[in-house]
Design brief:
By secondary structure, the protein is α/β, with parallel strands linked by helices. It has 21 helices and 14 strands. The strands form 3 sheets. A 6-stranded mixed β-sheet has the order 8-7-6-9-11-10, with helices on both faces. Helix 15 packs across helix 19. The longest helix is centred in the N-terminal third of the chain and has 20 residues, at about 50-70.
Length: about 500
Amino acid sequence: MEHIGIIDLGSNSVRLIIIKIDANGSYYQKENLKETVRLVKDIDQTGSLSEKSMDYAIKTIQLFVNFCKAHNVTHIIAVATAATRRANNRKIFIERIKQETGLTFKVLSGEEEAHYGYLGAVNTMPQTSGLMADLGGGSFKLVSFRDRMKENSSHLPFGSVTLTTKFNTKDKPDSANLKELESFLKYSYKSLPWLKGSHPIIGVGGTFRSLARVVRKDKDYVPDITDAFELTIEEVQATYNKLSKMSLEQRLNIPGLERARADIIVAGVAAIKCLMETSGREKIITSTSSIRNGLLYEYLNRYTKDPIVLSVLTHHIDNLINYYHLNETHLRRVSNLAVTLFDQLYQIHGFNGFERRLLLIASLLHEIGTVIGMEGVDKHTLYMLLNAPLHGLTHRERVIAAYLAASHTELYLVNIDQYITRGPLLWEDKDLIKKLAIILQITHSLDRSQTGIVTQVRTSIDNDQCNLRVIAKANADLEINDAKRSVKIFEDVFGYKLNIYRS
């Protein structure tokens, strides 16, 4: 087991994440710290960082180094981005950091920044094609990708902080400044014709996350998850219009908006709005990944030199199973039985690949709630699947899978209506969960002793009766009797009588 730290000295803030990596290769983020330093704001007329901003940044880095020592971090990856890269006195700054903290920072090029942002996004997002847009304080990194492979990449020399300063949008901006800002942005984007496309923008960085939180709070949206939250161009335009008419004092009180970002949010959202309008892309998928995630995947795969995971969803499911030391053999037996039964019952349920995939996900993670406790495991399972780092799903898929996994012994639909009226679910998803839950409950019962006694199932449909033949390598009375608890519910939900027996 090891703990690594990744420090990102950005134009707007300094960030630290601490990752625990187990002996089995699983990993988990243990800490996430941020301090706003605004390096890019205090560059003087000669292009040098001010003593004040350098001092503050170095003190913050030293604090993070001490924090890493307290948490047994054995390796720290340290990088600096746009503000440091452009500063005339960057060599002096980097040397001061090394002398005063002991850390050697690598100053990333704009291309490297874009690459790490792309790595973080494609390893955590369900979309396989799109435009990764990483908006920082002093630069905007853009990468188009198809089938998860990079196609085009560029970085523009402006960000939320520099745009705010240049076009004076900190407080209530006047219309002339806003018009000039938008014209500048659209002109800049038009120099990159490959930005145009129909696939969504994958929004990376604090401005995208803040925008998503503001929209979520305004809609009273659930679940309270930023990662993979979807924004339409109409929502972005409406939010920009609202924010740009407010004073700084008013923006400080907007629900969901981080106070430290209130002064730079107008320029940041303008950059996002104009990107959508210029590129023709009408949807944003918000990502909580960052260049820190890209650096992490590079470190995890440092020997193979292949930092792109084969399957986002499979990777993160496996990581959760291994990190929490769940009984993987039992989970995969239940999963295999569940999808087998699903396939054999097609005549009854009529579902296809979308529902099959959700059943597979839920069956693999249906016991994750046990890491909190057995008492109330259903609600613990729901909580874990809505809050654990399970990447590669849309919000609708995630909520359905969470309720389905929570229903692996009996139906659990507590508060589900709020995810329909205020969230991503459809009314028909309740019926979907009920039907898939019966399949999961039966197959969970068929490995009740977790010894693999039941090896296969075979079903046949005869008029209004479904015959479920259990194939086992030893006495399976415990499993079959437990599965029979679901007979009446099966009949109520599907309208078929269920007969479970061992051949």
